[in-house]
Amino acid sequence: MLKIGIIIGSTREGRNGEAVSSWMYNFAANRNDQVEFELVDLASYNLPFFGTIQQEAEQIIEAWSKKMASFDGYIFVTPEYNHATTGVLKNALDYLNREINNKAAGFVGYGGLGGARAIENLRLILGELQVADVRTSVTFSIITDFENMSVFKPADYHQRNANEMLDQLLSWSSALKALREQRL
User: Fold this and answer.
1) What angle is formed at CA 135 by the lines to CA 165 and CA 89, rounded to 5 degrees?
2) CATH architecture, domain defined by 3-183
3) What predicted TM-score, i.e. pTM, was given to this entire model?
């Protein structure tokens, strides 16, 4: 059975990421794909800035590494900050390499342009980490899919992209899992 992590890529107070990630989790789980989905909240990992490792943070870094290694694929949920993904998500990815190599990723973005530039930014980062990203992403507008830019009320048409993204992600995750197992 495939195991897919849905990563909440923001830790800000009052963030919209929890609502968007919960929507994606519920949507994915209700498809009955015989896949295990799990929400992973970066706020639960108090990762230090990469390169400033304190000894007391080693257990947190190890827990993050093991959690990410346990998945066959990922859905990264990211807001767009200054035309890019969040610093906290970039920092968290900097701690990883072999744990996520040869796995697949899909994206859910939100922001002024649906988080499209944050998603493009993540595609570059994950390419260097040997993560295969799928073409279709889900993009929520902070203007039209949120009431007062804070209450998540997604339009129904997003379900089509969510289905396409999940179809692609599960296909790639399955193929790459077979490749990883073949190499063992």
Assistant:
1) 80
2) 3-Layer(aba) Sandwich (3.40)
3) 0.96
